[in-house]
Amino acid sequence: MLYGHYKRKKRLDRLRSREIRVQNRIDRLRKDIKECNVDLEDTIKAIDYSKDAIQNNLVTSNIEAELERAVDRIFKEIEINIREKYKTKAKINNLEKQIEDVELLLEDLLEEEKQIIELRYAEKLSDKAIGTMLNMSRTTAQRRRTEIIYELMNKVRD
C-alpha cells in the first residue's frame, strides 16, 4: 500500500502535466479555427469552368470544399483531445482520492514515524541506511517500521 502511495503521487504529477498539455492543444486548435489558420491541400490546382460544374446549383468551389474538410479534421482532433482530457481528469480524481485515503492514515503518525515511512517507501532506502540517518541501529529501524505497518493495518481494519 505504501509503495503504491508514493508511486501514485508521482503519477499524479505526470497526469496533471498531461492534462495541461492536452488543454494547450485544444486551445491551439480552437485558435486555429477562430483565426482560420488552416492549410489547404495541394489538390487545389485550378478553377473548374466545365459546363456541368457551372450549371449545378449546389456548386461549391474547390477551395470551399477543401476548407470545409480541413475544418472538419480540426473539429475531430478537438473532439479526440477533449475525450482525452476528460479521461485524464477522471484518472486524476481517482488518484487524488486514493492518495487522500492514505494521507489520512499517515497524518496521525509522529514526525519520526513519518520520516521512517518516507525514507523506506518513497526513497526506497534500506533499514541500515534509515538507521544511520536517524541515529538508530538497523534492527531498531526495522522494528519501528514493522510496528508502524501493524499500526496502519489496524487503522485500515477499523
From TrEMBL:
<feature type="domain" description="RNA polymerase sigma-70 region 4">
    <location>
        <begin position="105"/>
        <end position="145"/>
    </location>
</feature>
<feature type="coiled-coil region">
    <location>
        <begin position="85"/>
        <end position="119"/>
    </location>
</feature>
<dbReference type="GO" id="GO:0006352">
    <property type="term" value="P:DNA-templated transcription initiation"/>
</dbReference>
<dbReference type="InterPro" id="IPR036388">
    <property type="entry name" value="WH-like_DNA-bd_sf"/>
</dbReference>
<keyword id="KW-0175">Coiled coil</keyword>
<dbReference type="InterPro" id="IPR013324">
    <property type="entry name" value="RNA_pol_sigma_r3/r4-like"/>
</dbReference>
<protein>
    <recommendedName>
        <fullName>RNA polymerase sigma-70 region 4 domain-containing protein</fullName>
    </recommendedName>
</protein>
<dbReference type="InterPro" id="IPR007630">
    <property type="entry name" value="RNA_pol_sigma70_r4"/>
</dbReference>
<dbReference type="Pfam" id="PF04545">
    <property type="entry name" value="Sigma70_r4"/>
</dbReference>
<dbReference type="GO" id="GO:0003700">
    <property type="term" value="F:DNA-binding transcription factor activity"/>
</dbReference>
<feature type="coiled-coil region">
    <location>
        <begin position="12"/>
        <end position="46"/>
    </location>
</feature>
